[in-house]
Amino acid sequence: MRIIISIPRTRAFAWVTLAMLVGVALTVRLGFWQLSRAAEKEARHAAIVAQMTAPVRDTAALLAQPAQFEQLHQRVALQGEWLPEHTVYLDNRPMNGRAGFWVLTPLQLNASTRVLVQRGWVPRHQLDRTLLPAIQTPSGVVQMHGRIAPPPSNLMALSTEPEVTAQASVPSKIRQNLNLKAYAAQTGGAFAAVVLQTDSASEGLLRDWPEIAAGVEKNLAYAFQWFALAALQLMLYIWFQFIQPYRHARRSSF
Fold first, then answer.
1. 65 SS3 class
2. What is d(CA 173, CA 135) in angstroms, rounded to the nearest whole number?
3. Residue 207 gets which letter from DSSP?
4. What is the pLDDT of residues 223-236, one digit of tens each?
5. pTM higher than 0.85 for the full model?
6. How far apart are CA 183 and CA 166, in angstroms?
7. pLDDT at 164
8. Which of 7, 103, 147, 219 has its CA 20 to 30 A from that of 164?
């Protein structure tokens, strides 16, 4: 004897179905959005890699055409003279898990053109942050290698620091952040570029700069979570709206 089991459908079922469809559609859309963000980052990283493998720009090329945004991360080989009197130390910039400073010094390429060089990193004194470590700044014409970089990133300041201004008579060498325009005005004019020095450790400075990564891991993880949530919603819907009522109706028929 064949038993036909009928599972009634109500208005509540329609609302649950609608909620499931909206929830699955939304989470799947968010998953694909995270995948698109990952693709954008990968494309941006590929552009950076292309810039870093482009021909090296020398001093003459940089003097002929100051660095533009499109040339970020391009390698340079520059020749000029350091301006050590304008060296600044950016605080709270760790390297390899150690607290310390980024050291920045202008490099004079000719009488009218300078670049700001992020020369390297030095550790901070453990007891007195105002005690600056000794570094060497060669005099005369030097040659350095690096890559064109954006200005140093700003950190959240807990208190208002005095800005480096053209009127500041004795500006502090230790800074939490660097106002590039004000610093340029105070030190003699705009910079043709900001350069991250990539030579081997020297002059008391470390240059273990982190490699530029695409950083897609977080987006891929979020995408997996959204897709998993969509699958979970669908499985719960099938279980509670079909499988469980079917099993209950089958047991009740005996």
1. coil
2. 14
3. -
4. 999 999 999 999 99
5. no
6. 8
7. 43
8. 147
